[in-house]
Structure to design on (655 residues):
């Protein structure tokens, strides 16, 4: 473990040393130097994770995307469309219909869902969708929705296991997530050795994912949006990504290291509000253009099977949709399992059922709205090669000229709350690897803040590739474990479902 | 168990006036007095993962504090006055939990203090007495 830590720190420290070297001669900005130093490393990692099988001359099919979709498809059939069967029951659980009033004061199902959602609803829904539509055409939306629907069953399984195999400490705090169900769950099956290896692999990838998609990607996209609204190229901040990064890093640091709860609380309260504003604005644009909605759906469904002008055709659209959906709702990745484990329930299955709604809200509802706005306003063709958050911003701007300002605030807040969530996931994996101690905790948080600055200073390409690859790598260990543990979940689900149907599990009156 | 009396306390002056008033009613009618302390809490708030992780611990602390600081001392003084009393501490929305407890404990009446809010304060912070009067299944006595 110590060796691993040393290797990691070397990697972190190596980058700044590199750009310090060529700082002397070159006339480059600080941003570009950071970029140049890190790109080769991130490109190499992305190359390994996204190893592609060539489908045609133009496009390859990344094996990892197949891996995720096959698992989600398998889970959907294996649990007999639990996402449809339990949809209404899950709503009743979130509303607290089945919560014993005597247990009031513990983390409720609603709170666990809201916390997990604030980690996933974010830039993936705004920027990720724009990337999918600009690269894969409107048809990518169809595959994104389908992947979101399939992801529900996978999310159900991983969150059930997260609660079932979590660690409870004498002081009443809990730690859960894939690293615990991989080691303990596989241990029960007599595969303790494999479980341990997978758990460690998962934890390492999760730390990288926390620093990549949960941090650098967020910092990068919020900086871009900030530059956009403050005057684009001519903005006083345009070439000062590092400065923006420092400010965000300071704010993140104050919350996660300084323990200033008030900032975290304000964020947690403002974020749902911003999500509502975002969805309302999207709905208004959709309703204003209601006449074009059938045509937009036509483009989405038509484009899904026979897209025009998309590299790789149908497969190209499919890959973009699946890839963005997985990045947005994180089903199969294992991250949400860490957040959901905090709930106190006698029935781990209930938490899994509640978690079903996460990919639904995140991908099927919010991502679809973003996609519809981009498709309806036609900005994905008129955008002139724009991608990411700029494209979404342009699409909303075509309806409300002032919307980019709101979006900039929303993007920065979403990014901030996602960073807070991922810093928590990262800390959990870090302490799983290096032991639970105050100094280890602090060390990770400091590294996390350094990466905020790095993320804000880089071009979009290297950051996205790195964040994608790190987050997708988590799914390698997680899904191997899930396949082995699916029968455990199925057994628990069958027991819960029969007790629910027989009336042994009842609603509590008075609500 | 029927025909007990329920009083809501929160460690404030209004609460102890209500407890005092309810105690004399309970003594007169020889019924049990249920002393309820409701810790304001909503299942629909938004928390950070860190807060969720520590929630169980905080809840235990909140309950212990409510019992040792308010409920236990009150029960002792009630016992000294010869009133048969028991205490309950629970999380939730005060008015809703008191209504629920009235049903659970078979209380025939609820006693509650008031904070003497102005209209604006009541609008902003909500008045427990005001909402209890609206939803309670049994008569409510508000002690000024």
């Amino acid at each position: 473990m110590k060796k691993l830590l040393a290797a990691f720190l070397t990697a972190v420290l190596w980058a700044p040393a590199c750009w310090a070297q060529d700082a002397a001669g070159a006339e480059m900005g600080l941003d570009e130097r950071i970029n140049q130093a890190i790109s080769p490393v991130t490109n190499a990692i992305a190359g390994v994770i996204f190893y592609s099988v060539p489908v045609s001359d133009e496009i390859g099919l990344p094996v990892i995307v197949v891996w995720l979709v096959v698992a989600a498809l398998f889970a959907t059939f294996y649990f007999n469309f639990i996402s449809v069967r339990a949809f209404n029951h899950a709503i009743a659980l979130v509303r607290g219909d089945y919560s014993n009033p005597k247990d009031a004061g513990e983390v409720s199902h609603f709170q666990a869902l809201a916390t997990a959602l604030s980690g996933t609803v974010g830039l993936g829904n705004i920027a990720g969708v724009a990337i999918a539509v600009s690269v894969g055409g409107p048809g990518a939306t169809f595959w994104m929705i389908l992947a979101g629907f399939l992801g529900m069953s996978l999310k159900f399984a991983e969150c059930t296991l997260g609660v079932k195999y979590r660690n409870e400490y004498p002081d009443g705090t809990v730690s859960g997530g894939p690293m615990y169900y991989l080691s303990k769950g596989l241990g029960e099956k007599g595969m303790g050795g494999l479980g341990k290896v997978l758990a460690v692999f998962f934890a390492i990838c999760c730390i990288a994912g926390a620093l990549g998609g949960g941090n650098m990607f967020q910092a990068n996209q919020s900086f871009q949006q900030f530059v956009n609204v403050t005057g684009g190229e001519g903005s006083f901040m345009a070439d000062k990504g590092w400065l923006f990064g420092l400010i965000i890093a300071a704010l993140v640091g104050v919350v996660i290291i300084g323990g200033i709860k008030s900032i975290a609380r304000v964020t947690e309260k403002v974020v749902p509000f911003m999500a509502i504003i975002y969805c309302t604005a999207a709905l208004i644009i959709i309703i204003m253009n209601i006449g074009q909605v059938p045509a937009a759906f036509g483009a989405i469904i038509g484009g899904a099977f026979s897209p025009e002008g998309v590299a790789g055709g149908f497969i190209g659209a499919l890959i973009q949709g699946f890839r963005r959906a997985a990045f947005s709702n994180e089903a199969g990745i294992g991250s949400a399992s860490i957040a959901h484990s905090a709930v106190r329930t006698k029935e781990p299955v209930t938490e899994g059922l509640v978690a079903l709604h996460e990919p639904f809200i995140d991908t099927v509802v919010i991502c679809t709205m973003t996609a519809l706005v981009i498709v309806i306003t036609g900005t994905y063709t008129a955008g002139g090669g724009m991608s990411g958050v700029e494209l979404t911003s342009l699409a909303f701007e075509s309806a409300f000229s002032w919307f980019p300002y709101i979006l900039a605030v929303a993007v920065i807040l979403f990014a901030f709350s996602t960073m807070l969530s991922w810093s928590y996931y990262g800390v959990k994996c870090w302490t799983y690897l290096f032991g639970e101690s105050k100094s280890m905790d602090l060390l990770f948080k400091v590294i996390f803040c350094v990466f905020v600055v790095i993320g804000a200073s880089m071009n979009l390409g290297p950051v996205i590739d790195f964040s994608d690859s790190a987050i997708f790598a988590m799914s390698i260990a997680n899904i191997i474990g899930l396949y082995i543990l699916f029968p455990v979940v199925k057994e628990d689900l069958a027991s819960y479902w029969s007790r629910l149907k027989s009336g042994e599990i009842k609603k509590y009156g008075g609500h | 168990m029927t025909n007990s009396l329920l009083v809501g306390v929160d460690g404030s002056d209004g609460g102890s006036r209500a407890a005092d008033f309810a105690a004399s009613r309970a003594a007169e009618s020889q019924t049990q007095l249920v002393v309820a302390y409701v810790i304001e809490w909503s299942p629909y708030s938004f928390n950070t993962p860190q807060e969720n992780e520590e929630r169980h611990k905080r809840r235990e602390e909140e309950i212990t504090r409510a019992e040792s600081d308010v409920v236990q001392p009150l029960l002792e003084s009630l016992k000294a006055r010869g009133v048969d009393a028991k205490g309950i501490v629970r999380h939730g929305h005060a008015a809703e939990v008191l209504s629920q407890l009235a049903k659970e404990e078979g209380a025939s009446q609820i006693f509650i203090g008031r904070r003497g809010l102005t209209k604006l304060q009541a609008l902003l912070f909500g008045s427990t007495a005001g909402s209890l009067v609206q939803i309670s299944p049994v008569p409510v006595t508000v002690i000024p």
In short: Residues 13-27 of chain A have pLDDT under 50 and may be disordered. Chain A has one domain: 31-98+107-500.
